[in-house]
Structures
1.
Amino acid sequence: MLKLKNINKTYQTDKIETIALNDINLTVNKGEFISIMGPSGCGKSTLLNIIGLLDKPSSGEISISDQQITSYQDKVVASLRNKKIGFIFQSFHLINDLRVIDNVELPLLYRDISAKERRSLALAALERVGLSARTTHFPSQLSGGQQQRVAIARAIVGKPALLLADEPTGNLDSHMGNEIMKILESLHQDDGTTIVMVTHDEEEAKRTQRIVRVYDGQLVAATEQPLHLDATA
Amino acid sequence: MLKHIAKLTWNRRNENVLIIVEIFITILVLFGIISMLASTYQTFNKPLGFEWQNTWSIKLTPSTYQEKGTDRTIAQIAQALRQRNEIDKVTLSSLGLFTSGASTRGEDFNGKYVSYLLTHFSLDSPKDLGVTLVEGRWFGEQDLGQNYTAVMVNQQFADEILAGKQAIGFERPYDDFIIRIVGVFKDYRHRGHLRGSMPYMFYGHALESSQVSILRNINIAFKQPQSPAYEQKLREILQRIAPNWNFKIDNLKDLRQQQINEFVTPMMILSVVVGFLLLMVAMGLFGVLWQNINRRTKEIGLRRALGASEGSIQAQIIGELLALTLFASLIAFALLLQIPLLELIEVVSWTNFWLSITSAVSVMILLVILCAWLPSRMAIKLAPSDALHYE
Ligand SMILES: Nc1ncnc2c1ncn2[C@@H]1O[C@H](COP(=O)(O)OP(=O)(O)OP(=O)(O)O)[C@@H](O)[C@H]1O
Ligand SMILES: [Mg+2]
């Protein structure tokens, strides 16, 4: 499903070179739910951004859905992001001036789909996250947890092969965080979605199949979760 | 996508008002500048209605002691000049060409107050000056000793003041005489290129009449161009007839050029001022758009994360701003339309209005695209991951 080979990423700022990622190798199987953990600043977000084609690695190879990324030409990556990847961010990143339904439709605007079909896909996605009753609200009229559910609906509306979540519960209290985790688990278990999630929360991480630990830009360990092994076997 | 843009633009109406106001003001400024330029250009290029090439003007100032017989002296001078071989035509009028002097008459005409310019000529002068006859005839001997005074009017007089009435033969009583229109001429812009046309009336006088004393401007058209040295010779001829008179002799070419030069200098200063004004307005617009797009960097990052291509984002931003431009243009249009509709400002004719509004809006569209291009380009060039964290 997802394969990273010798990924390096360095940031050059004011003569200081930051090595954010150092020779990362990682394989995620189809239908797997993994979490990435590590101390602040270790490079988790950088890693997720590179997987999600939001950033270019300094060197190394990535393939998504067995398709190797050879070109970072805008047209190519834009289309891959649109069709293969769904993103969930810690701070939701909803467009405040658009109603819930329009926010969810956003990724479909960049596809060749009729307005009617867009609407029905967006309604289905909202139904999936339990927000059918809030479609015409503006994001500011929703709780944080509800906003994150809208963001999830937006991430899954295009039926991407890979769902990436960067601390999806980071801005939520534990109750709302739990709700989000339940939705992710359901997407994984019921729909077979492949999910890569960055988290700071050990409890959350334990609910995934595998924990990848990053320290100072390097992968240090990958712990299999015996509890869920049967799910991917 | 269009519906999406419309929705977003509407939902952001509060922020967009600022942009619309900025664009609206810019359109007004552009309209003002363009319509001023266009009307100046139009006025400048409109035919003067007379010939000035190879022509010199003589302004006569009779001596203060010799009041009687001025008319005789002027007639003698005209006679003497006519006999010269090198001179083609001699014309006499009450007002000099390419001078700002004018005599205006204002009166109630069919219950409407009108004003028009007035010049007195010797009978042949309008024709000899190259004025174009549109209708009727020139002044002639047949007008002498009649119970009416023959006048000619220009086309504008006929159109605006007579308003559709038959011009030729039109009569109108004054205190102790009647005027009768015998001919309509095209135009006579004796004040030069920089003054617009006005309704105009010519009076014609025979050289034998005592009225000749007011015809103190003589124009002489040469068969061949004359060198400045000819002025001395001319003075000798004139002084032989009227030794105590004063003569101001000019080549019309020089008077015309002088008039243009006097106009060009303030225009240059004005264009610098206008240029600055335009620059300020453009910079204001650029600032507003820059700020607007900058604030949307996160949104741009998000859209790219969701799969928007660089091209579609740029198209969206420019599309949104063009929608605002359209809106501002409509308001400006509705407002500016009142100028020709209510005839508020004379120079803004319908032609001028359409020209100015379309150019102002076109320039505005270009300006908006230009001002939106750079900031949107910069936002797009950020990696989406950076754009998402942009503050
Ligand atoms: N755009 C950037 N320019 C320069 N340095 C950057 C940039 N983005 C990240 N870094 C640096 O790269 C390193 C990894 O950052 P990253 O955001 O991936 O950490 P993280 O593990 O997600 O941290 P956190 O848990 O706080 O979110 C940090 O040292 C950070 O300062
Ligand atoms: Mg992070």
2.
Amino acid sequence: MQLDQLYQEIILDHYKRPKGRGLREPFAAGVHHVNPTCGDEITLRVALDGETISDISYDGQGCSISQASASVLYELLNGRKVDDAFAVHAAFVELMGGKGQVEPDEEVLGDAVAFAGVAKYPARVKCALLSWMALKDAVAQAVALEKEEV
Amino acid sequence: MTALTIPAGMPQYDDKPRFDVERVRADFPILGREVNGHPLVYLDSGNTSQKPRQVIDAVARYYAEHNANVARSVHTLGTESTEAYEGARAKVAAFIGAPSVDEVVFTKNATEALNLVAHAFGPHAQDPRFRLGPGDEIVISEMEHHSNIVPWQLLCQRTGATLRWFGLTETGRLDESNLDELVNERTKIVSIVHMSNVLGTVNATARITARVREVGALLMLDCSQSVPHLPMDVVDYDADFIAFTGHKMLAPTGIGVLWGRGELLNAMPPFLGGGSMIETVKMTGSTFAPAPARFEAGTPPIAQAVGLGAAIDYLTAIGMDAVAWHDKELTAYALDALDTVPGLRIYGPRVPVGRGATISFTLDGIHPHDVGQVLDSLGVQVRVGHHCAKPICDRFAVPALTRASFYLYTTTDEVDALVRGLDQVRKVFA
Ligand SMILES: Cc1ncc(COP(=O)(O)O)c(C=O)c1O
């Protein structure tokens, strides 16, 4: 298998220089997700401003794929409307579940298209999805809390 | 240099039991294949071993020529199957020095064997040695596989007993400094790993056994990693129970062994209920067969047992002393070779003494997943992660480790391929 398909420059770049990393205040909801098979962990917080995700902050430990994926997620979804973010989320999950057969849409996925190669490595798909699942969980919690308050 | 390799031609060379590794390799069909365009370098035998032609053929021959259910038929095939299955039990007994064939219980793996013993304990056990409740203690260690932790945690939840454990020293050995306090009159069973699947440590059990006897507790050894690699004699070790698993010793998956002292096994309640484990069944109640049948409910893994018998024949023909010596030389070589890799840190004993052929390590700043992935692209198969022994990672404050584990078919060339691969890893993530 082609190693450079997996470790694209973009991925290595995000891994070495992650965007938006570090936990910040204020936040509406925070979650901690782990990948039980390998011990990768992420703590992720989201702040909402009405319909908009006004901050995504995170910290974690894990392999280059899981860490780069969190950085790409930040770049792509921070400041987006919740609905838009969930649409991108769905596209990324579809790409990861596609066993390399799904053609990624760069318009929607931006740097996340670099993860297309990861989808061919079943053992690594969970690494790529760790922060994305955490985000979905955190946003859902934050939205639910907001509704309670209204 | 710690290397203790004795060059061929030296007078001491022949003092050690040896075998021809290349001839052994020729028996393992899989070792001829390629992975990602490179010759396979299989360094994950601690996870599961590869299988020689002799084992594969024995399983195929069983199905092709003898297949029938065991212990239930008068017909010829049934008799042949029963003989094959019971013959495998006799081979296991001889291999571990069991005083009686009836002390060998077939399970599906080591995990089931450990759970079986844990389930014998409870507040209402007939035999006081298995009676367990609040105030009683069970002792394990921080270097256990999850399968020797979780069953005891569950048991403690069910009964209110307390789980305690040996800590580890910085070099990855059992910390026995508090032995007398840890193992005491309240202790019912001490269950520890014989050889760690992560650190490679082979635990010296004599002091612990002596203390266990002093307080009247029971001793179980998880020999999943040791029985495949070291000569085992259950009488010498003076254990009460040992557990091991076929697939790590050249046999198929789906077959494991619980050995227990016969008198203890027959004092234990059954584990699973069903066919083959009973003496008689009435609608108002049943009585149970003596061990080992008591613990073998339902149709057992017959072909897998036959495969285990063939694996034991294979290992016995080579000689477990020779296997152990091969491991030792290879480990000495690998410890030295890995020492040359910048940023590499070994977790576990750094000398090839009191340890087996399993080496776990980290590479500075590079996650084990990434290490494993790059190595895989070069055909080198290692395990990465927490190795079902998360407390060890916690103890040494690392999220995950990379592990290379060897067996009788592993060569020094393969160790060199690992070291070259690690250089490549460092280049990718430089
Ligand atoms: C030390 C140790 N104990 C127990 C086990 C469990 O073996 P199995 O999964 O075959 O039950 C293993 C296997 O990984 C092991 O290395």
